[in-house]
Write a structure and sequence with these properties.
Elements: E1 2-5, E2 19-23, H1 30-42, E3 45-51, E4 59-60, E5 73-74, E6 76-81, E7 86-91, H2 100-113, E8 118-126, E9 141-144, H3 153-157, E10 161-162, H4 171-181, H5 205-215, E11 219-227, H6 233-247
Parallel strand pairs: 2-7, 2-8, 8-11, 9-10
Antiparallel strand pairs: 1-3, 3-6, 4-5, 6-7, 9-11
Helix pairs in contact: 1-6, 2-5, 4-5
């Protein structure tokens, strides 16, 4: 993975922030939507982009506005907020099938070499895999590298629930940790946790990112919520509010409260397309 500084950035090519926020590809793209909301609201500056052979290329128009001025956006972009000591990475295209752990290892190594000390990963989880009490009301779940069992005092204080499906002693989680610690992959060696009912959560992208960043010695917190495909804008606000509370960002509030000072990205205005042609009525 290689970082390329933006030609329009006012910052030096060397990144200075020590906390990194990034999404994990997931159901409903909730992590990516939450990151878009943070980027738009914090008025961060794009400082460059990342190139990795395991991420499919993509290109599009500026998603944040206030107007679509033709500035291009690509698959992996890095933004910086010096006021809050933050880097934010946005991912807009999927990872090549079977290469998630390779991508996660590359990303973790880049973050470590860039001076990152703490990583916050945002992701949605399939509500069909949730226990009954986990979906009775909106609830933030989490995994932290602070303790072996995935718990963290700050997260407990915020009222979050430790992801009950995280069990470091289970074979699938142990296999994932072992793979994340490997320095290199031999040709032809399988480098992924096979998806199955038992290994569903360790086989998800957020788990690979968590394990690989943890293997580099960084503090890692996964902020998670159960959701379904559909209109996931409320879930994006839910995750963005959670990370704001955790990192003491300006956009803090009670869970589920859409604070008036959130800045909705320009691209969200086209989620549902144009209104229907009135001649059909």
């Amino acid at each position: 993975m290689e970082f390329f500084p933006s030609g329009s950035s006012k910052h030096a090519p060397g990144l200075q922030a020590t906390t990194l926020i990034l999404p994990s590809l997931c159901i409903g793209n909730v992590g990516q939507l939450a990151v878009d909301l943070l980027i738009s609201s914090l008025q961060v500056e794009k400082v460059g982009f990342l190139d990795d052979p395991h991420v499919l290329p993509c290109v599009g128009n500026d998603p944040f506005g206030p107007e679509a001025n033709g500035e291009l956006t690509v698959a992996l972009e890095v933004f910086e907020d010096p006021d809050h000591n933050l880097q934010i990475m946005q991912q807009r295209s999927p990872v090549v099938k079977g290469a998630m752990l390779k991508f996660a290892k590359n990303l973790a190594l880049w973050a470590y070499n860039s001076g990152i000390k703490e990583v916050v990963i945002l992701s949605g989880l399939d509500s069909g895999k949730a226990s009954r009490h986990a979906i009775e009301r909106p609830q933030i779940h989490y995994i932290s590298s602070t303790n072996v069992d995935g718990t963290d005092e700050q997260c407990i204080h915020l009222g979050w629930r430790n992801l009950e499906q995280f069990s470091p002693s289970d074979e699938a989680w142990k296999q994932l940790e072992s793979l994340s610690l490997k320095e290199r992959v031999e040709d032809g060696e399988p480098f992924q946790v096979p998806l199955s009912d038992e290994a569903y959560f360790p086989g998800m992208p957020f788990a690979s990112l968590f394990s690989c960043c943890k293997a580099q010695g960084m503090k890692v917190t996964c902020i998670l919520c159960f959701c379904s495909e559909g209109d996931n804008v409320p879930d994006a606000f839910f995750l963005a509010e959670a990370v704001s509370n955790m990192l003491h960002l300006p956009y803090r509030g009670t869970y589920g409260e859409r604070l008036s000072n959130w800045v909705v990205p320009l691209s969200w205005g086209t989620v549902y397309g144009p209104p229907p042609d009135q001649c059909i009525f």
